[in-house]
Amino acid sequence: MKTDQTNARKSSIERYSSAYTLSDMEIFIFPELFYALVLANIMSPEIWKWRDDPWFAKIENKSFTYRINRVKQYIMDHFVFNLDLDTWGLTTKERELERFSKMMDMEILRQSNALFGYEGDKYYFDIDIRRHFGLDKYTDNIIPYWKTETVEAMSAFRHKEGYTTGAGECVSLSALYAAAMFIVGRIPLEKIFLIATPLHSQSFITEGDGILTNNRRIVTKTMWYNGTELSEKARRAIANEKITIVSHLSGYIHFMYPQATIDRQEYNRLETSLRAFLTTEFTFELFINFLRTKSEFWDCFQYRHQRHNKECYIDLHTIFSYEHSSKNKFAGENRKLLFEEADARDFAASPKEGKIIINDFEDFLNQNPQLSFDEKKEYFICHIMSERCSRMRTMFEEMRNFIRTEPCLPPEDKEFKSFPPLQICTSQSRREILSLIHEMSSQNEFAEMAQYAFRSMTDIPWDPFVKAAIERNPVCVEGLKGKSLEDIHATLSAMPDDSIYSDDDRMAMPDEVWNFGRGDGAEKTFVMAACLYAATPTATFTIQIDNGNAVFETNGKPYPFTTAKNLKVHLTM
């Protein structure tokens, strides 16, 4: 019994402290943190300021398509994708396993985490995932923290060397999209689902045919099937990976855990909407879009064209090369204009032997839309396929997967156990939402964890913040390695005293202070604490914050800073 109680306490402190560092690993173990980050962004004043930007003038009166594209463009203009190893530092497999060994099954972890053995997306393993992410220069046990950023930390990247805008990784961007679509786009949270796979995170909006966010961009159903490089990247996660977490205002479902808190009807609604988004009809335009992504089949096809009232022929490879530099598309209504751009020397007077004339299949597809995929496939193979192009059966099997992606969602064989819902709607003010989340924090686990992710230190205990600050901020420790406490104090004192969190009771983590080269004096004391703890884990120290002063003290020597935070704290470690 004593061991069980000890494990429960350890799990509790790890859970609460993880809301400050929000690494991908932590969100996997504690899936309630995924939506807590969305709520923390909604609680923040930062995205609410976007409403005052002229870019969003009168947006509330516009169509859904206008609103979502306006938000998308704003995010693209103000944020870039970032997934380097330097921003949030490195940890080890052994350290993470020790933290979570009582909370997970190692075999399940191997099935779901790319850095512990998961190989769901063949693309990354063909290119060697460790080399792709820059980990090949380290031993195999070194892995990145890959922490998820709040909107404040994302925006603060503009202060970091090499950046002129904000930045964030995929989980950060999916959470940012969810909050921005709600606050600025006035899209109800009930329509927004967060979807996490082992290598990626996206948001799906169940409006119309559906909208999928993909890092900074959005993907409509039409875009999903257009055969461009962007759509292929967007497809990669859902087409090749299992979905580990689905998170929604009503709760979450995780493939690993036997209980789910998401409302079952909402989960079924997502499943229906997502499957419809991932399925389309086999038309000629879709056929060409598919071929656009499969260069290995291009040399099987040629197109018969009327040029100056004479039949001539052009390779599909040549057609796509012209498409690449043209606004006109072969399968679109501007096909004629595309061929007007082509050089006469690219047309042959006679068909090339062994190549399929694609016109015949186009005519058949246009005249027989009611036929099934298999019926269209069999007609092609029996009546049109060239004997010399033996890859057609393989092509059609890949085509089948192109027009219908089967999402590997968490199974429904769970015990669905919901908590009292958060009644958040687009007509509420930020202040009303803050009040509601605070009131519901004892009944709703998203609201509870949002308090920690939001970091309003007047409302929550300090122990989890301290644990996260001194144990999981390796970048400032590495940057200040070898310096005396006096030198560290001098370095921090020379930094601007501006916190990236404008509220007077919210606190940045030490690595946020270090990365962005600024911080309130209260935040700087925890940078010193992290450095001391890394060098001497058994050392004792005190931190006192009160009345404009923030003092870090160890061995009887004080290191003072000034603070604008409205906090009164006395901590002894």
What does this entry look like structurally?
There is one protein chain. The protein is of the alpha+beta class and 573 residues long. It folds into three domains: 2-280 and 407-454, no CATH class; 284-403, no CATH class; 463-572, no CATH class. 45% of the residues lie in helices and 14% in strands. The strands form six sheets. Strands 8-7-6-5-9-10 form a six-stranded antiparallel sheet, sandwiched between helices. Helix 1 (2-21) crosses helix 23 and helix 3 (32-43) packs across helix 22 (445-454).
Summarize the structure.
This protein has 573 residues and is an alpha+beta fold. The two termini are 28 Å apart.
- Give the integer mean of the pLDDT values: 90
Helix/strand-derived category reads alpha+beta
Tell me about the biggest sheet?
6 strands, antiparallel
Determine Rg (CA atoms, Å).
Answer: 27 Å
Helix and strand layout, with pairings?
Blueprint: H1 2-21, H2 24-29, H3 32-43, H4 45-50, H5 64-78, E1 79-81, E2 90-92, H6 93-100, H7 106-112, H8 122-126, H9 129-132, E3 142-144, H10 151-156, E4 166-168, H11 170-183, E5 192-197, E6 200-205, E7 211-214, E8 217-220, H12 221-224, H13 229-240, E9 245-248, E10 251-254, E11 259-260, H14 264-277, H15 284-292, E12 301-307, E13 310-315, H16 316-324, H17 335-340, E14 356-357, H18 358-367, H19 373-384, H20 392-403, E15 415-416, H21 430-440, H22 445-454, H23 463-471, H24 474-479, H25 485-493, H26 510-516, H27 521-535, E16 542-546, E17 549-554, E18 557-562, E19 569-572
Parallel strand pairs: 1-4, 11-15, 12-14
Antiparallel strand pairs: 2-3, 5-6, 5-9, 6-7, 7-8, 9-10, 12-13, 16-17, 16-19, 17-18
